[in-house]
Amino acid sequence: MQEKLHMSRHPGTDPPQFETRIHAIDGSNVLLDSTYCYPRGGGQPGDTGLLSSENAESEINEVLPGDMILHPIENPELFETGDSVICQIDVARRNAHALMHTAQHIVSAIAEDLWGAETVGNQLTVENSRVDLLFEDKEVFNPDELVDATNAIISSNLAVNVHEWERSRILEHKQMRHTKFMHRIPSTITQLRVVEIEGVDLCPCAGTHVSNTSSIPQIRFHGKKNKGKGRIRFSYNFE
Ligand SMILES: [Zn+2]
């Protein structure tokens, strides 16, 4: 069983360089005994980086999910199963994603609290991020109100806590958000990671986060699009 260290490390910023072994190579994908790399998921891009052994090095393209996390590399022919390798994650890119992702928790929580708007999709990048919101009546949406309320939370120096909770505790919790997807997670996984922004948000999440809202820059309205009945795509970036 591969150790997926991005799940146990918090805050999800500044992932360390790590040493491990190549478990297998499948086409251009390298499987590692253990990895700190974040695999694409939940609207957050996978990490990129550099893989090196004694004799070779290769860029790691966007890391992808799987039973074992996939590290697609440019030059798989330079490596062999069993090689001892060092993996360096692109830390600046990861940290930018952690900031954007933590901001998205706040945006989604506020849209729900202000208008009952559910987050039905999101995609973040280093430059800007978007959240798809589903409204009963989308006429009520006011992007400035969303931005101002989000920035007020960001400025409040709130701790971002990470918990490992049993499924039943998660499903029974009155303040818990975003539990609809939980049935898709295999029942053999009895504990899930829950992310809490104190007094603002509480939801199961496997993304990467900062440890306090004070490290997040203020957000700025980037655009909105109508995405069909009741749906608005809200985009933001950082000031
Ligand atoms: Zn998250």
Structural descriptors:
34% strand, 3 helices, alpha+beta, binds zinc ion, globular, 239 residues, Threonyl-tRNA Synthetase, Chain A, domain 2
Can you describe this structure in just a few lines?
18% of the residues lie in helices and 34% in strands. It is built from 3 helices and 15 strands. The mean pLDDT is 95.
Describe this structure in words.
- This protein has 3 helices and 15 strands.
- It has 239 residues and is of the alpha+beta class.
- It folds into 2 domains: 3-89, Elongation Factor Tu (Ef-tu), domain 3 (Beta Barrel), CATH 2.40.30; 94-238, Threonyl-trna Synthetase, Chain A, domain 2 (Threonyl-tRNA Synthetase, Chain A, domain 2).
- The strands form 4 sheets. Strands 6-5-8-2-3-7 form a 6-stranded antiparallel β-sheet, with no helix packed on it.
- Helix 1 (91-115) packs across helix 2.
- The structure holds zinc ion (ZN).
- Zinc ion is lined by residues 101, 105, 195, 205, 207, 209.
